[in-house]
Design brief:
By secondary structure, this protein is mostly helical. It contains 5 helices and no strands.
Length: about 100
């Protein structure tokens, strides 16, 4: 029975993978499927769409802009941004 479901899922995935135009809905869909919390999934999707429509950039692009050092940054802000980048590098190395 489980093997039959896996085969059907693989067939649907293979046939429909060209239908996905944006990956903005994949995260909330996973949240809904794993936790069953429709409110959390809806909030995640809605906030992502709102940020994209207001700024014209995805949330990842906005975070990248926030973390790049600027000339107007105080020494404290530069230190925090540097520590965040170093921590991300360490986390990426530990995942591999």
């Amino acid at each position: 029975m489980i093997l039959k479901k896996i085969i059907i899922l693989a067939l649907f995935l293979g046939c429909l993978n060209g239908c996905v135009q944006s990956t903005a809905f994949l995260g909330p869909a996973y949240t809904l499927g794993s936790t069953g919390n429709i409110y959390q999934a809806g909030l995640s999707y809605g906030s992502s769409k709102a940020i994209t429509s207001l700024t014209g950039k995805s949330t990842g692009e906005n975070i990248e802009i926030l973390l790049t050092p600027n000339k107007e940054d105080t020494p404290f802000e530069k230190l925090v941004k540097k520590q965040i980048k170093e921590t991300r590098k360490k986390l990426n190395l530990s995942n591999q």
